[in-house]
Amino acid sequence: MSDNGLSDKIKGGISKTKGEVKDQVGNATNNKSLQAEGKMDKAKGEVQEGIGKLKDNK
Fold first, then answer.
1. In whole angstroms, what separates CA 28 from the centre of its chain?
2. Which region holds residue 30: left if phi is over 0, alpha if psi is between -120 and 50, else beta?
3. What is the pTM of this model?
4. Model confidence over 2-23: pLDDT tens digits?
5. What is the DSSP secondary structure assignment for residue 38, as one 8-state letter?
6. From CA 5, how far away is CA 10, in angstroms rounded?
7. Could you give the dihedral angle defined by the CA atoms of residues 14, 18, 21 and 23, in that order, rounded to the nearest 10 degrees?
C-alpha cells in the first residue's frame, strides 16, 4: 500500500492548528515560551503538509 501523502497532510494540519492555539494563548497570557512553541508547531505543520503534497505529486 503506497502512502499518498494524506496522512502527512492531516498531521500537518493538526500541528498547525495546535501551534496556532499555543501561539494565541501565549500571546494572550504574555507567555513568550508558549508562543515560541506554537510558532515551532506551525512551522512543523507546514513541513508535514509540504511532504504530503510532494508524495501526492509522485
1. 20
2. left
3. 0.85
4. 568 899 999 999 999 999 999 9
5. H
6. 9
7. -120
Q: Give residue for cell 515560541.
A: 36
Cβ 42 vs Cβ 15: under 8 Å: yes
Contact 20, 40 (CB under 8 A): no
In terms of phi and psi (left: phi > 0; alpha: psi -120 to 50; beta: otherwise), the region of 25 is alpha
Task: Provide the grid cell at 57.
Answer: 505529486
**CA dihedral (21, 42, 31, 33) positive or negative:** positive
